[in-house]
């Protein structure tokens, strides 16, 4: 049974951008919490070429009901032409944590 909360995984070009947009999403009440996880090496195919980029991985915690709104907002303000914004369901979490997340987002 799903907890009703999700993590939204996104990578950013810089820690500054990740922090700024993370704070913005919490202030807009689209996320209860944001974890800026740190540097990641991304290897991907883009416009026919294999590329490598140093990025910063970030997890946004929100409700399942707000995930689509958060994902849309992140896509609008992100800065990448095609940001990878993925939603990961949280199957199990302690009830007080689930309640806290729900209380923090709109």
UniProtKB/TrEMBL annotation:
Gene3D superfamilies: 3.30.70.120. SUPFAM superfamilies: GlnB-like. It comes from the Bacteria. Belongs to the CutA family. This is Divalent-cation tolerance protein CutA. The lineage of its organism: Bacteria, Pseudomonadati, Pseudomonadota, Alphaproteobacteria, Sphingomonadales.
